[in-house]
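step: validate -> pass
step: tokenize input -> pass
step: predict -> running
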Amino acid sequence: MGVRAISAPREWAAGLVVPVLSLGAAAGVGFLTARSQYLAVAAVAAAVGLALIARDAARLAVVAVPGVLLIARAPGLGISLTDLLTAAAGAAAFAAGAHRELQPAAKKLWTAFALYLGLLLGTIVANHTVRSDLEWFHRIAIVGGGVLAGAWIVRRGLTRMALRLLVVAMSTLGAVAIATTLTSGFAPAYPWIYHKNYAGSVFATTLLVLLAASGRLEWHVRLTRLAVVLLGGGLLATQSRGAMLALAAGGLVWFVRTTPDKRRRTGAVVALGVIAFVVVAGMSLRSQIQDNDQHNSIHHREEIRGAAISLWEADRMTGAGLRYWNIPPYVGTYTQPNDTPTEALAESGIPGLIGFVVFVVGALLALARARGDLALAALCVLSARFFHGLFDIYWVGGTTTLVWLIAGMGLAGIARPPSSEPPSSAAPARGEARTGRGAPA
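step: predict -> pass
step: emit ->
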């Protein structure tokens, strides 16, 4: 089936969908707000998303980018809305042939990821449950679905739209985080329904995208500066040490990999920002260590880690199973480890940890060999997210999904217009013309 057959319903149908969905959303907002503010926001977001998708199915992938904020569970399914959206976008992208449009470097990623999934089969067989099976497919959806959806965005010339939606959504959340901490005596911000570490992670990821590929948004530099202030302020408001250190790691990757010209123009500002975030994170960590509170987050994390290591030592080769903390007899007794190496060992033993390390190295090598500013942005956010995984949970729908959506954009080939357009119109797609995929912006 061709791309156009998937992505272009009849105009009259699209014309009906937009007003009908708009009226339905407007009518339901008042009712939903009375029950749940989050449901009201999700209903409006769904209506807008469906209206966009009605004109081009590739916009399903575009909606999936800010859709990483839809972390609520789908009723009756037990999985998050962002996971459903990413899986659907990835499946549609695969049907449209997005997997054939990736840069050659993507083969390293797929090979490393396949090896990782294969090494998880030992724990799935030894500790078989429906929950572990679903988690195996969940990780495929996060990585595979995210990469394919991100690549589809670039191939359809929708990069600018996707990144603008991302920056606007996360900047809005950043403003809420700033307001939250200012009105709570500078306590760590939990904006809306989001945990501080979740919010901190998406702020750091979006900041790195702006650092490496802000030219893709094609808007005034003042808007970019405003977004940086809101995102940076939001990150500080969350007081998420892991996210701050992750941003520093991603900024270091950018500094090493960017062009000499950009390093001269903005390197000093980036270095000052990185140092500031590292200092704030270090001061916060030092304060918790010195207060010697047995109930603070550091001691709590150490208790969880110790329990997970003890569980792994009972079976070093297969572990206790994927997401064992939600499966009898471990549910209620064990908590999910707060660092990826410990989680990998407890879940899947030594083979699982080896597989994850291979996966990390393969993914980073793939993006290091890919071309373009989006590939650099993807390398930065992927490095930051893996580094963050040393201090926090990695396999989380939303924060990790966003990183793989950006990775898919970075691994996409050179953008071209829709195949249904006449050859005479084969100019670079809008949003891609200024920079191209062959050179940095």
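step: describe -> The chain has 16 helices and no strands.
step: cleanup -> pass
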